[in-house]
Amino acid sequence: MSEVIIEELKKLQDSENALFQQKLTPGVDADRFLGVRVPDCRKLAKTLMKEYTDDSKAFFKQLPHYYFDENMLHGLMIAEIKDYDECIKELELFLPYIDNWAVCDSISPVSFKRNRAKLIYKCQEWISSEHTYTCRFGMLMLMKHFLDEDFKEDYLKLPADVVSDEYYVNMMRAWYYATALAKQWDATIPYIINQELDVWTHNKTIQKAIESYRITTEQKAYLKGLKRS
Question: How far apart are the C-alpha atoms of 11 and 73, rounded to whole Å?
């Protein structure tokens, strides 16, 4: 049974790190943290998915999980699935249960790089979700996979069209556009010049871009003049 996996997590628990994780992840009850360090969690995920035993399969079905660390492990295990369609299937089941940015942002599936032609449609679907972390995950994947050789200007509009009062959605939007400015300046800067984003996301984008080492001194000076009040 999947209790075997929970016992493996408990062997790795670290009370000091649990306190640190609690501070970084507001909104998650303190008693839900075992404090397993992410590198240890990732190592366990790789081991479990290499064997992919009945315990692993049972663990995937045991939702919702109680511990933050269970959710972290679950996401990292999904990321190890090499078959794209199977990965998507497990993601679709898991995304609605994600309740914090840390678990959301830790998931980087190995199968996505080879399947971007199909992935872009899933990104569009996820971004349109009303669930905070499904929407955030969609924008995160758009940022990771579609700002380089597979970039198209039309993709920039996807996060711009999101209307949300959720902090972790809008923070992701700002992170996306700050990264887009670093990688695709000419295509992205009109979104700032033309004030296509709400004031908070607009200013947070500029702040994050100015903090980036990938933005030139001249670009930073220009962006400072585009802040809104």
Answer: 14
CB 34 within 8 A of CB 68: yes
Cα(81)–Cα(52) distance, integer angstroms: 10
- The long-range contacts involving 48-57, CB below 8 angstroms and separated by at least 24 positions, are 48/5, 48/73, 48/77, 49/77, 49/80, 49/81, 50/80, 55/1, 55/2, 55/4, 55/5, 56/5
Q: Under 8 Å CB-to-CB from 181, ≥6 apart: which residues?
A: 188, 189, 192, 205, 209, 212, 215, 219, 223
Specify whether the CB–CB gap between 50 and 35 falls below 8 A: no
pTM: 0.95
| The residue type at 50 | K
Give the pLDDT confidence of 191-224 residue by residue, as tens digits: 999 999 999 999 999 999 999 999 999 999 999 9
- pLDDT tens-digit map of 6-36: 999 999 999 999 999 999 999 999 999 999 9
- Written as one letter, the residue type at 35 is G
The domain limits of the chain are 1-111
